[in-house]
Each structure stands twice: as structure tokens, then as C-alpha cells.
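Marked as duplicate of an earlier ticket. Keeping the data here for the record.
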Amino acid sequence: MTYKLIPLTILAVITVYLIETYPLKPVQTLWIFAVPFIFYALTHKFGNPKLSNELLAPLFSFALIFYAFGGHLFQQNAQKPKNVSNIVNIEELTTIVEQNKSFLPSKIDELTTLLDINVLEGSDEYILTLQLHDIDVDNTNLELLNSTLSDGLKGQCQHKGYRNLHKLGIKVSYQYVDDNKRHIGTHKADLSACKKSKTINSEA
């Protein structure tokens, strides 16, 4: 029976390598290890114990393969945030928002991190929460800062995603917090120019 452990050992090493190399989500495939143990328990109780012993190692090997490669495939399929450019309704936006939450927080640049995204329940408003680093509300002219932030959200129709959201009647708002996650202000993206855009369905 010792020779049967060789492929199992090799698979175990490969599994460890894959887990160390790729940021897998083990919970997605961990359940597969229940298969050989359930099989072992059932065949010992109701079936042929000899057959159970012979098939346990191959089944466990299969579980290792599925765990390693299955987890990797799940991660590969979910490694990029979904885009809002091609959604057709608020329900699709809500679904994409929930999927993309797993990628947050996400650093945009040295001064800004995207902390959260939400679709306001019972409304057609898409809210993004941004953290501004090196900003403390106690030591900042909030009136001037909020004016600057609001001005920065004008003329957003060059982005395909914003044009699509505007076409669907979905509002976009940004909520800003300081380095300690204290509220700075909330501002709506100005999408009024989208009405005049002749390229609403073209690429940005």
C-alpha cells in the first residue's frame, strides 16, 4: 500500500505550491474533501471494506486535484472587477456591486482609496465611498475642500460607464471620508452633459 501514497504525496506538494503561488479561496472547494470520507464511512458500514480501502487513496487524490485546480479556476474567473458599462438595469448594477465588494478596499492612488460601493436601497443611486489620505476633518477647511471635490465631479461623460448609468437614469454619488474614516461630504457626479453627447453608446 506504500506505493499508493507516492502520487498522493506528489499531489499534496503541488497543492501546497498552488496555494502559496495563487491567492485561492479555499472555502470554495474545501467541501470536496468530504467525498472520500463519506464514501469510506458508507462502504465500511454497508459495503465492502476492502474496496473502500483500495478506493480511498484515489478519491482523496481526486479531492486534492479539485481543491488545488478548482480553487485556482474560481479565483481566475473572479480576479477582475466587473464593469458597469454594459449593464441594462438597476438590478444588474446591484449584482455587480455585490460581486465587486470582494475587491475592496482598493487603492486608487497615493492619496485616495475606494473603500466601499453601494446601490442605495429603494432608489436609483450608485454611491462610492472614497477615503482621502493625509486629510483630517479637524485640520481642514471643509468648505473649500468640498467645493474642490464637487468641481472635480463635473464633466464625467467622457467615461463610458457614467454615460451608460446616466442613460439608465442611475445617479452617481461620491461620499468622501478622511484618514480616520470621518465624513467629509457627499457629492453627485455631474452627468448633465451626457444629454448632449452624441456618442453615448460608443467607446470612451
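See parent ticket for discussion. Strands lie at 106-109, 112-119, 125-132, 171-177, 183-188.
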